Automatic annotation (TrEMBL):
Cofactor(s) named in the record: Zn(2+)
Domain of life assignment: Bacteria
Name of protein: Lactamase
Membership in a protein family: Belongs to the metallo-beta-lactamase superfamily.
Start and end residues of each Metallo-beta-lactamase domain: 29-261
Alphabetically ordered keywords of this record: Hydrolase, Metal-binding, Zinc
Residue ranges that the Swiss-Prot or TrEMBL entry lists as coiled coil: none
GO MF annotations in UniProt: hydrolase activity; metal ion binding
Organism per entry: Micropruina glycogenica
Length: 275
């Protein structure tokens, strides 16, 4: 069973998100996928915002991040509260796959102290505790949102069997989360070096591909409307992934590609999987 939850949102200028967008503020929801597998237990893809985001970004320079992208997330919006509504306790969450470590994807992480954590290669810099606050803030990494035992709880992608996704190109292989081909973790480097997506072939009409922040809006791969150049960190790899998503969209129009902050994509995907 898969459910798509939204844990808080921020606002951002639409024009920054996609060329062709208006100079107006739009809501940017934070997607969390809840997977309840008969053998593998409860797994989350990202943890969204949580109220602690406000305190973790209260001091300088992290405050800059919170000021640029004003966040709304009350206690009832957290993934923790939404799991409680489903009679799920924090200890039920066995594994958390993080698309990347930006604050809007990890703010709920500290609520799940028993879960193993999957992050992509190069995503957690070895010196993240020691490097300057400015450097962390420049990478949208907020140390107070990461667990003290982060490294001990990491589950390497190498421990998950490599399988063919059948998606072709850069997305041809994925790491099998449950050992039954029902959920494959795919690599989508660009927005960040270790960006991870999740391919759920049995969900939706032609499957569901959660792509984190590989793109922010579906018009990136349907109409080539990319974010401002300055917001495409590793431009070459970013654009290579967008080209792959555009190819997939053209070849499989019923495959639902879901960027974490695209309201229209989330609504459409929820129509298939519930939540
Ligand atoms: Zn994000």
């Amino acid at each position: 069973m898969t459910e798509l939850l939204v844990a808080g949102h921020c606002v951002q200028l639409e024009r920054f998100v996609r060329r062709g967008g208006a100079w107006r503020s739009i809501e940017f929801p934070s997607l969390v996928a809840l997977l309840d597998h008969p053998d593998g237990g409860v797994v989350l893809y990202d943890t969204g915002y949580a109220p602690r985001f406000h305190t973790a970004t209260a001091r300088w320079p992290y405050q800059l991040y919170a000021r640029l992208l004003p966040v709304t997330c009350g206690p009832a919006d957290s993934v923790l509260a939404q799991l409680a509504e489903r009679d799920l306790a924090p200890g039920d969450v066995r594994l958390i796959v993080l698309s990347h470590l930006h604050g809007d994807h990890v703010a709920g992480l500290l609520d799940f102290t028993d879960a193993r954590i999957v992050v992509g290669p190069g995503e957690l810099p070895p010196d993240w505790r020691k490097r300057s606050a400015w450097r962390n803030a420049a990478h949208a990494l907020v140390p107070d949102l990461l667990p003290a035992d982060a490294e001990q709880r990491l589950l390497s992608l190498d421990e998950l069997a490599l399988r063919s996704t059948g998606l072709g190109g850069l997305l041809e292989v994925g790491h099998d989360l449950f050992g039954d081909d029902s959920a494959l973790v795919v690599r989508l480097p660009g927005h960040t070096p270790g960006q991870l997506g999740l391919w759920l072939p049995a969900e939706g009409s032609d499957g569901l591909l959660l792509v984190g922040d590989a793109v922010w809006h579906r018009r990136a791969f349907t109409h080539g409307e990319l974010p401002l150049r300055v917001l495409r960190a590793d431009r070459e790899r970013y654009e290579a992934i967008v080209a792959e998503l555009a190819r997939l969209h053209a070849e499989h129009p019923h495959l639902l590609i879901v960027p974490s902050h695209c309201t229209a994509s989330i609504a459409e995907a929820r129509g298939y999987v519930g939540g």
